[in-house]
Structure formats: structure tokens, C-alpha cells
Amino acid sequence: MEISDLKLGKVMSNDEIVGFFKCSNQGGMRRSYKINTLVLISDYTKSIYEDWWEKDVFYYTGMGLLGDQELVRQNKTLYQSQTNGIDIHLFERFKQKNYIYIGQMYLAGEPYTEYQMDTENNNRKVYIFPLKSKLVDFHIPTEVIDHFRHDRQNNVQKLSNDQLEKIALKVKPNRAERLCITQVYSRSIYLSEWVKRLARGICQLCLQQAPFNFKRCTIFGNSSYSVVITWG
Questions:
Q1: Which residue segment(s) compose the domain that 198 sits in?
Q2: Is the pTM of this model over 0.85?
Q3: Do residues 115 and 184 share a domain?
């Protein structure tokens, strides 16, 4: 099968990606010199990186787990992709062993830097690459997002208050919006859980004790910090 025959939304294993694209079996940016492609993996199951969609633009965080990132290796490859002739292909991973093919992408704007946590929970500079679909946009089915968020929410609830606070206070709230088969707002589950804990069982909208009426009360927080949460 040729790359042009690869259908959007196809679910592949890691081994299948390696065999198909002739690339490495690990890492989020996998270059193949044999077929001149760069495979990007956005792994939401375990990655420390913060990748997100804003409608039809995908913001991909560059390579480098510890310390400030630099425009070297595959970061440089992606940065120069408008002139070096390499083809960019994106996969998203919401479930162990399942990689969903989003399609061929292109660099849609100038990369910029922001600060995210590294593997030692220190703020560091990372490169953000704005990408767009080169051909036809593919939208993840809503049920895939819902199932993934349910699993992550269960994991987040197991965190201690100290662990959750450290993560939540470094999260940039309400910046992610992706187009699915139905539109979904990708809220930070860490920030959502932390603000609900700060409320101490009192809804700051209706001032009633838990359990909250999620359909009526969509704001959780206290006088010093609140966040709007959309409940589907």
C-alpha cells in the first residue's frame, strides 16, 4: 500500500507505523530518510508535552524532554519543512497501542516559544509548531474523546492535592478547541479537578452543596480562582 492510499482515521499499531513509514519505533518525531517523511506522534496517554487543537490548527510541541528545547535535529527538520521537501504525517494516540492517522500536515505559520514543564517538573522553553491539514481535515469521533477523557479523569482523581495543585497551577486554561464529528472543547482535566476541590463541595454559582447539578451549574471555584467548565 502506498502512502497516498492510507485512509484518514485508520488505526495503526506502533509496529505498523514503523513498517509502513520505515521510521524509528519510538519518540514523538520520527524521520524516515528512506521515504523522506517525518511522522509526528501526539500521545495523550503518557506524554508530558502539551499539544492542542484550535479549530483547524494543530499546535505541536517540539522534541526535547529536559531543559530548553532548541531548533536542532527533528525540530529543525519540521522548522525547515516548507523548503526541505519532507512530508509531514500526524498520528494521535488516545489509547494504548492505537494510533489514529490524522493525515498529511504542513507548517502553517512561524513556530514560537512558550514555557511548559519538563520531565523534572521544571518550567522550560519549548517550540510550538502550528500545523494544518494538507488535504482534507479529519475529525476524531466524539466518542473517542469522551472515552479518553473519562479514563484520564479517573486517573486524575487518584492524585493527591499537592500533586494536582502543582500541575493545575501551571496549566493554561481553556485554550484548546478541536473540531470533532460534533464540536468538543478540550478543557484541562487537571485544572477542572483542582478547582472543584477548592470549592470544598460548594458550587460557587448556586451556593448549594454537592452533588452539583452539572446541567445548571457550570462554574466551579472560589473567590480567588474560578473556571468555566462545559459539560456535555
A1: 142-228
A2: no
A3: no
| Cα atoms found within 13 Å of the Cα of residue 215, Cβ hemisphere only | 0
pLDDT band at 50 (very low <50, low <70, confident <90, very high): confident
Residues 126, 191: one domain?
no
**Cα angle 186, 189, 190; round to 5:** 135
Pair 54, 47: CB distance under 8 Å: no
The sign of the CA dihedral 168, 117, 18, 79 is: positive
Apex CA 31: angle with CA 29 and CA 33, to 5°? 175
Looking at the fold, whether 65 and 127 belong to one and the same domain comes out as: yes
The Cα 86–Cα 107 span in angstroms is: 11
Convert the pLDDT of each residue in 154-183 to its tens digit: 777 887 888 777 777 766 655 556 666 555
Could you tell me if 42 and 113 lie in one domain? Answer: yes
What DSSP letter does each residue of 77-118 carry, written as one string?
A: HHHTTTTS--EEEEEEEEETTEEEEEEEEEE-S--EEEEEE-
**Could you give the CA distance from residue 190 to residue 17 in angstroms, rounded to a whole number?**
31
* Whether residue 163 is found in the same domain as residue 115: no
